[in-house]
Amino acid sequence: MTSTASHTVSSHAPGGASNVLTIGESRAHCAHCNMREICLPAGLAATEIEDLHAILGKRVKVHRGEALYRAGAPFAALYAVRIGSLKTVVLSDDGREQVMGYHLPGDLVGLDGMGTHRHESAVTALEDSECCVIPIGHLETMERLMPTLQHNLHRIFGREINIDHGMLLLLGSMHAEERLVAFLVNLSARYKARGYSATEFVLRMTREEIGSYLGLKLETVSRLFSKFHDEGLVQVQGRGIKIIDMPRLRLLVNRRS
Amino acid sequence: MTSTASHTVSSHAPGGASNVLTIGESRAHCAHCNMREICLPAGLAATEIEDLHAILGKRVKVHRGEALYRAGAPFAALYAVRIGSLKTVVLSDDGREQVMGYHLPGDLVGLDGMGTHRHESAVTALEDSECCVIPIGHLETMERLMPTLQHNLHRIFGREINIDHGMLLLLGSMHAEERLVAFLVNLSARYKARGYSATEFVLRMTREEIGSYLGLKLETVSRLFSKFHDEGLVQVQGRGIKIIDMPRLRLLVNRRS
DNA sequence: CGCGCCGTTGATATTATTCAAGACCAGTGG
DNA sequence: CCACTGGTCTTGAATAATATCAACGGCGCG
Fold it and tell me: Hey, are the CB atoms on A173 and B215 less than 8 Å from each other?
């Protein structure tokens, strides 16, 4: 992980001249991070953000396909996604793989380790990504000193639970079509909240991963995309998505039976 | 576990008003509660448990079929189940109901309110039940003063997330049969952890509720119970369950497609 | 260029749902 | 005591939804 990577990825890094050495060089600059409003420091005063910086570890870069952490790894930190996207995956005993989360910049990952102090699932980069490391020991200390941070953390835990409940509702009570629509609508909202286009985005998961995430087979996902495309709801070109008729999409999520 | 109800509530006056009845007398006695080892105070020193008592609200009694809280209610407290059993339910926009949790004594419920400060789901008693109330404001204060409590809470949050992930795995990748077996095996383990029989227990949910919980229809649940019964895996008599062949059950959970 | 992964599409099989009928059971009132 | 009632549970047959199997096209990459 401390591997001083051979090349810089930096789609964001200003000025090429800046340190090629390591991403750890600069601690995360929450104050200037685009995601500060939806990430951990949301609502913190400037001075508090400084305090928070004091406990941040170095950032880590995760190449596409590589793991931020694997199932069974000791729980040492939470991670805030800064750039890129990642998936949370669990492997059942018999080798079946299930995608349980799809994480965009600003999301906090790693919470699955809090219960047992070991990560129960693995997190893998879907593209070259970068995460801020928040060592858990330091975080707990800081939390005791900063009620706002404590509160933020609780909010984030709660949000995580709500997200999971949303997925339970999706998997437990929706048809294939509704699931995929809900997935698209949800993604749209999340991209919008992050300042990206709500109508045009690129999926970072294969059909198989999307299927696993939604409890469907990859063929079903593919067929549905084609269907939506034909019906003029969404333009689909491989992983490129352009939402054409959002109102009608929303109707589809809650159709009866 | 018929918890010495020496101080049970004086049956309230007729003309019942609120569905939730607070118990005036005794604060919860964690120190003597059968569930202390799996509940919030697990691992706390005796003096710490006393401190924890200081912030506990009154206990509440919830009659079968009534709500501990409803969706949309302001988030004011967490609740520890003391006696009985409850379900967590969400109602989707179009009126579909989905059971998302089945709670036994020792479980902490109400965490779904942490994200937005409103409960996103409702919790309803499946039988006459009793919960300890832990006001959230007091809890956050206490948490700052007691690292052990803070840590316990984090563990519980994490456990909750792991439980949800388990359900996601179940709903996302298991067949009907596997789901129902996993449900039984899980229940068995939870009853065992609480000092009850691991092989004989009574379901507190209807077939429909179980189906909702597992993403199946009630008829499917019924058929599968009959099938398991015929195969000598489980004796099923209405809601009475007696596990006959646990090893074979375990095999069924992870059968390859 | 050829190879491997990914995505699409069709035909078929399987699984679970839906619709329907009736049994069971506890509680209620005549 | 019995019949009645409403909710729950079981079971069967028909149906719909999704998975599976299979073939092929495309794209990126070494």
Answer: yes
Please provide the average confidence, as pLDDT, over all residues in chain B: 88
Give the C-alpha separation, B87 to A19, whole Å. Answer: 55
pLDDT tens per residue across span A153-164:
999 999 999 999
- Is residue A135 domain-shared with residue A235, that is, in the same domain? no
pLDDT tens for each residue of A91-101: 887 778 899 99
Question: CA-to-CA distance for B74 and B109, rounded, in angstroms?
Answer: 14
CA to C1' distance (Å), from B226 to D4? 29
Count Cβ atoms below 10 Å from residue B134 Cβ, excluding itself: 22
Tell me which chain B residue has its CA closest to the CA of residue A118: B158
Final residue of a domain: which of B135, B168, B201? B168
Domain end among A124, A143, A168:
A168
Chain B segment 70-129 residues within 8 A of A by beta carbon are: 90, 92-94, 96, 98, 100, 111-116, 120-121
Range(s) of the domain holding residue A229: 176-253
The C-alpha atoms of residue A18 and residue A26 are separated, in whole angstroms, by: 10
Distance, Å, A119 CA → C27 C1': 51
The amino acid sitting at A51 is D
pLDDT tens across B183-192, in order?
999 999 999 9
In terms of CA atoms, which chain A residue is nearest residue B168?
A: A168
Q: E strands, chain A, where?
A: 59-62, 67-69, 77-83, 86-91, 97-103, 108-109, 122-125, 129-135, 200-202, 234-237, 240-243
Residue B163 sits in the same domain as residue B207? no
Nucleotides on chain C within 7 angstroms of protein Cβ: 5-11, 15-20, 25
- Model confidence pLDDT, tens digit, residues B148-163: 999 999 999 999 999 9
**Distances from the Cα of A192 to the Cα of A183, A195, A201, angstroms:** 14, 5, 10
Cα(A249)–Cα(A241) distance, rounded to whole angstroms?
13
Q: Among candidates B95, B99, B72, B71, which has minimal Cα distance to B87? A: B99
Judge contact between A114 and A143, C-beta under 8 A. no
Tell me whether residues A158 and B96 touch, CB distance under 8 A.
Answer: no
